[in-house]
User: Fold this.
Amino acid sequence: MIIIMKPGAKPASIQNVIKTIQDHGLRAHLSEGDQVTIIGVVGDKARLAHSNIQLAPEVEKIVNVTESYKLANRKFHPDDTIIHLDHTQIGSGILTVMAGPCAIESEEQLLSTARAVKKAGATFLRGGAYKPRTSPYSFQGLEEEGLKYMKTAREETGLKVICEVTSARAIETAARYVDMLQIGARNMQNFELLKEAGKTGIPVLLKRGLAATIDEWLNAAEYIMSEGNENVVLCERGIRTFETSTRNTLDISAVPVLKERTHLPVIIDPSHAAGVRAYVAPLAKAAVAAGADGLMIEVHPCPACALSDGPQSLTFEDFDHLCQELRPYAALAGREF
Amino acid sequence: MIIIMKPGAKPASIQNVIKTIQDHGLRAHLSEGDQVTIIGVVGDKARLAHSNIQLAPEVEKIVNVTESYKLANRKFHPDDTIIHLDHTQIGSGILTVMAGPCAIESEEQLLSTARAVKKAGATFLRGGAYKPRTSPYSFQGLEEEGLKYMKTAREETGLKVICEVTSARAIETAARYVDMLQIGARNMQNFELLKEAGKTGIPVLLKRGLAATIDEWLNAAEYIMSEGNENVVLCERGIRTFETSTRNTLDISAVPVLKERTHLPVIIDPSHAAGVRAYVAPLAKAAVAAGADGLMIEVHPCPACALSDGPQSLTFEDFDHLCQELRPYAALAGREF
Amino acid sequence: MIIIMKPGAKPASIQNVIKTIQDHGLRAHLSEGDQVTIIGVVGDKARLAHSNIQLAPEVEKIVNVTESYKLANRKFHPDDTIIHLDHTQIGSGILTVMAGPCAIESEEQLLSTARAVKKAGATFLRGGAYKPRTSPYSFQGLEEEGLKYMKTAREETGLKVICEVTSARAIETAARYVDMLQIGARNMQNFELLKEAGKTGIPVLLKRGLAATIDEWLNAAEYIMSEGNENVVLCERGIRTFETSTRNTLDISAVPVLKERTHLPVIIDPSHAAGVRAYVAPLAKAAVAAGADGLMIEVHPCPACALSDGPQSLTFEDFDHLCQELRPYAALAGREF
Amino acid sequence: MIIIMKPGAKPASIQNVIKTIQDHGLRAHLSEGDQVTIIGVVGDKARLAHSNIQLAPEVEKIVNVTESYKLANRKFHPDDTIIHLDHTQIGSGILTVMAGPCAIESEEQLLSTARAVKKAGATFLRGGAYKPRTSPYSFQGLEEEGLKYMKTAREETGLKVICEVTSARAIETAARYVDMLQIGARNMQNFELLKEAGKTGIPVLLKRGLAATIDEWLNAAEYIMSEGNENVVLCERGIRTFETSTRNTLDISAVPVLKERTHLPVIIDPSHAAGVRAYVAPLAKAAVAAGADGLMIEVHPCPACALSDGPQSLTFEDFDHLCQELRPYAALAGREF
Assistant:
């Protein structure tokens, strides 16, 4: 932590800051410039966290030197995290493709989709049983009944299954049926939910919030990890900007930024980012080329009949075609698919 | 709902859309332009909600004519909602000032603040017992112990008390101690929480999400109201933009926009919007001048010692001075304070 | 300038940075923390500007301690700038109201507006002769003919007149007719235009770019001032965000932020910010309450006939009513109007 | 154009709108819903452009059905535009790589870079002679001297050369030396400059403004094209968002969106988008995979000595390595490189 004093700060103000630092058992390192005095804090800055030193007289600003997330930080864990689930894995040398409908609507809809995405190459089936919808009058999901269909699909196809959870109660139920929990964008800073997901020990896919910075996102991952669950996968799904041609703006740069800052796997959801079916394939290829560990893609037997997100869903045929197109890109990126 | 066909759409595509509309028991109204054909849908469009008509061949786009929120919509409820709490009220002719610390830290801290803000003119004491913090290593709140102090403060001063809730469990506990529940920005689209808050019947202050449009915010209010709780107050607290001089960007225009679209009271939180103590007073005055029904302001006996949000908290003296400055502005705006 | 090294940076990397600093005739101040080493640079950092020291091995990041704008900076010029134009002024104790049509359409349109806004209390007439329009097929302005009408209006009413300029040629022409030049939002970083406006010595109103940070805006003002023209007024007119209920989002916090960072006068344009006539009055009142030095408001004899920006223009009657409403707000804010 | 009336609009208001439409020689098509009446306008809506019909009594909103850009619109020009320059081309089946320093600093710097990028596979040399810099105290470019070095580099290497222009005067000078003009992000809506560039007939690379929507960008292209110059290439270089990990946020989705809306070639500048050298390669690969027609990349003989944008520049070796990596991606995307 570095404390920058206002230009021409009085010696008494500088001494006051130094004393505060020392009173917390830390060392202050003084650097007097021509215009500005800077005070470095040496030691564990957590001790100063509640001192609000930025309110001391003539303090201009505080610069934090170290990130507040530790477990998710590549600096303290240089090797890539690999999440093993039986015969499959997420991370390092594998391209993981998760596919399925936005919302689970019926057993037949889910099973037919499971068979189709399995055949095309997916290793995970996605499907929403608890749907966070903007309007209370939209379809809200089949809840536990949907989870039962997920389990059936898993048993029949051997796919791993992942489902979004939106409350502690949903986590408790879902934990009995699925291989992986998903925390959605709207709940990325629902810290109670993050802690509950952390306690289960089940792998968690954490979607980025619509307006979350990458550092806030990594701090959200830290909530899950600090409960003892280090099996976290980050999923970029578009951020909110002024551009309205797409539902959200896919922040493709998040892939290399995350690869630098964290050891956790990173996957991309081009369906929610684009919101338009025709843009899903180019964004999926871009994601693989940028170095993503996987993709999450919406697929529906009949997009025009879907109860949620039809316009961005691929048909079985579209998805099969996309998987074929993706194979050589995965190979170039050094990933098995 | 209006359906705009692509230029030169084939008659078969147009007939297909018309048939879909009629199959849902609605009437289609055809308007053939030189370049473009437009089809109006007459009747209850909710019947079409799951038809994904935008995926039909040669459909260019869909334009919704009516809002999806009903209970919060001024069109169907022209008169201002007034929320009555014993001898005080929120809305219509009153400027409601809520003040207190970001986080409840001790009984003494809370009681001294309650006395000071009451004296200056506040009618509500705010204070956080459950704190959603970006990092899991920051102070997370005193929970039920903090709520007990709130109750004590209420009994001693006669102030109404409001506290943020972050989980169904917190709502259950808080309901025994407070007059009003607060849903924070990070939980604005935590729909499970909104529904739980709706079920209590206790007045709810709903903060705007960092990246929520005004229409998404009104839909979030609709979640609470559709559970039978119409006592909702909207609180603008800054949105996320590219500008970093302030913690968030206060969207002051939200006041007149909301006054047009909804009958619910609107209050402004200049403390979280600014993130800097010196900007709180000018923004508070601007809010009153723009027509807000109230203010929520952070006050702390010793901002430099605060466990949370110290830099944006006012001292007792600052707050007292601000209230004096606000009085003539409230009078100009036709509000008692 | 502060240089933060990566955790565990090697002594050779640290020595390399120190040597670079010393080679530029500056002093390096070393601060070794437990995890991180920090190097302060003492002396005129401009000497280091081209050294790209952030590319040196094991440098984590660079923190700038001082702003790059000097002439616009309140630190070096603590007193408010007042711009005197004959019997009127902008800044300090005065509320300056500029009003008029978006585009000058005819002599009669401009003169009737001039008379009406003068009567209501404006001291400046605004009117566009060179219109930067999103589409090349929209009305582009009357150019010099429009400027002549401005001059006529000035002579008849005694109002000062201001007009937007969009090219060096337009500046040359406008300089013969108007009292103040306006640089629009789209040209805020058209640095050639800023320099040309700087050379004229005529007062300049500099609108904020749609996506310009406050610091970029002050650097744009610095371009004008560094040509010897210190008569610059800053005009906030809304920034681009995700919210679409208003044409732009008025950043009302810019008023207190600018008052802290610069000595230049600050005015608000609620018309372009809102884009909707009904929101202009509440935003104008908020601007005065927040401490703005003035307002720029679009007024048109017949908004429904306007060739540009009709939806956000006030009628004569609306404007007169608004001026009456603003008077007590101006008085409260300590400004003559 | 569709006009949506307010719920319960009076017959007189509806008749008034119909009359206005008919008075402009157009046909009105009435569609009366249960709640809302909608009026379609049949005919050339340009006739209505100045009528401000949205201000008529009880009009709720106006929906535009057709885009305002025509020459740039794929609807009226379905085939891809290919820009031919002697033996090379931009668009359709080719991956065009433009590379070079941000700013031209010396003949030796430019020539050595030209040789290196030519050898690696670039067909265009980029280099700035007129630099729009945020602060007036930063290096502003060598101007005509720099252009002479560009010409020398072209003659020696056979590369095509492109240079940013920032004023009418710069266009006049640059036209004598370069093969292609670049309009930078800050000048995307400097309409005078666009018109001047249009008049030259020289191919123009138009960068997207920091906060420009895709439709505004296409309208800016329309300004150039409407002067008779149809050789326009669009260059996405990152938009401004709340995320600060990268200098800007690369909007990779702009590639498929533009491919749908326009026939003009699209290239990506990953250097300015990222602002960080390590992110350039993954973004460049993503751009090719998403379907871009080319790349513009900053290369410098010594990034650590660069007078501008050093942190985001590649060394010769980096660039050569990137070109080798890009080749199989170009092949997969069906492009020669």
User: Anything to note?
Assistant: Chain D touches chain A at residues 211, 213-215, 239, 241-246, 249-257, 260, 273-274, 278-279, 282-283, 285-291, 328-329, 332 (CB under 8 Å). The mean pLDDT of chain D is 92.
